[in-house]
Structure formats: structure tokens, C-alpha cells
Write a structure and sequence with these properties.
Number of domains: 2
Order of helices and strands: HEHEEHEE
Structural class: alpha/beta
Strand order of the largest sheet: 2-1-5-3-4
CATH architecture of the largest domain: 2-Layer Sandwich
Number of strands: 5
Shape: rod-shaped
Largest sheet: 5 strands, mixed
Distance between the termini: 88 Å
Length: 175
């Protein structure tokens, strides 16, 4: 007489459960890869855009070709209208080191400027320090940059005047 073969008792896992678990692991790995790749891409693009903006800000216009039209001259040096004691400076930490903005603010204050605030910049990977000025305060921005030994001076970018709490110039501390 034939008897059916009985397998020893072992836990059986339905194939659907195994498929769901494998799919969940694969989706998790894909999300991790997307986050890492996206972060790397954003950092690369951000650095490229910053370098291009700085290069564009520091470029001098090419000399105009000789024509019958009026020759365009580069802008003359603009003198500061306000004395240092009347210029308010917002100091932002753009390098991520704790306490760097406070010590930079003290340095700015030693030159006679008023501090309009000290905070952390929207990002903390600035390669170099930069001075940005509100419209009409180019002279004050250039003077502050000269006083601090900063070579990058640009118009206000990425911030609205309403975010400056009355400051005329922004000093972003870089590495």
C-alpha cells in the first residue's frame, strides 16, 4: 500500500510575502540612491552657479568697438554717501563654524560700522567671504569690502531688502 510522503514540519513562507519584502527592500535602496545622487547633483550645480555669478560680477565689460555711437565707459568708482557710523551691516555665517559670525561682527564693528544683525546664512558652504549691498549703497559695500579685505562685492542677490532688518550691506563670511 502506498502512503503519501509527508515532509517534515517546516515553516512555509508564502511566495507573495517574499516578493513583497524583496520589493520593499529594492524600493528603499532606490530611494537612498536617489537622495544621495540628488544631493550630489544639487551641490555640484550650486557650486557651479555660485562660481559663474561671482565671475560675472567681477567681469569688466569688454571695450566697445569703434563706432559713430557714443562710447560706453565702465562705471566710475562710486564714493560712499554715508559715514561708517551710519552704515548698518548684517553679518551672516556662511562657513558653518560656530561663533564665526559673532567674531566677524566684532571685526566689522571695530571698523566703525553698526551691526544690523548676526545670523547663519541660508547655506554654509561659501568658499570665500562676500559683501552684498542694497540698491544705492554700492559705495558703502565697496568700502566695507576694502576695510575687511574682501574681494567679492556684488549687488544684493537672493535676499529681499525686507529681510535685512534695515541693514544697508550684507557681509557673508566664507572659508
Amino acid at each position: 500500500m502506498d502512503h503519501p510522503l509527508v515532509a517534515p514540519e517546516s515553516p512555509t513562507i508564502p511566495w507573495r510575502t517574499v516578493a513583497y519584502v524583496a520589493t520593499a527592500i529594492a524600493v528603499f535602496e532606490l530611494m537612498v540612491l536617489l537622495v544621495l545622487g540628488g544631493t550630489s547633483l544639487v551641490t555640484t550645480v550650486s557650486n557651479t552657479v555660485e562660481k559663474a555669478a561671482v565671475k560675472r560680477a567681477l567681469e569688466t565689460p569688454a571695450p566697445a568697438k569703434h563706432t559713430n555711437a557714443t562710447t560706453v565707459r565702465p562705471p566710475a568708482k562710486v564714493a560712499a554717501k554715508l559715514p561708517r557710523t551710519k552704515v548698518r551691516v548684517l553679518v551672516l555665517n556662511g562657513n558653518g563654524r560656530q561663533g564665526a559670525a559673532a567674531s566677524a561682527a566684532a571685526r566689522v564693528q571695530r571698523h566703525g560700522y553698526r551691526i544690523g544683525g548676526v545670523a547663519t546664512a541660508s547655506r554654509t558652504n561659501f568658499a570665500r567671504s562676500i559683501v552684498m549691498y542694497r540698491p544705492g549703497f554700492i559705495g558703502e559695500g565697496r568700502r566695507l569690502a576694502q576695510d575687511l579685505g574682501v574681494t567679492q562685492v556684488t549687488p544684493l542677490d537672493g535676499m529681499r531688502p525686507s529681510q535685512l532688518n534695515g541693514a544697508h550691506v550684507v557681509f557673508i563670511l566664507g572659508d
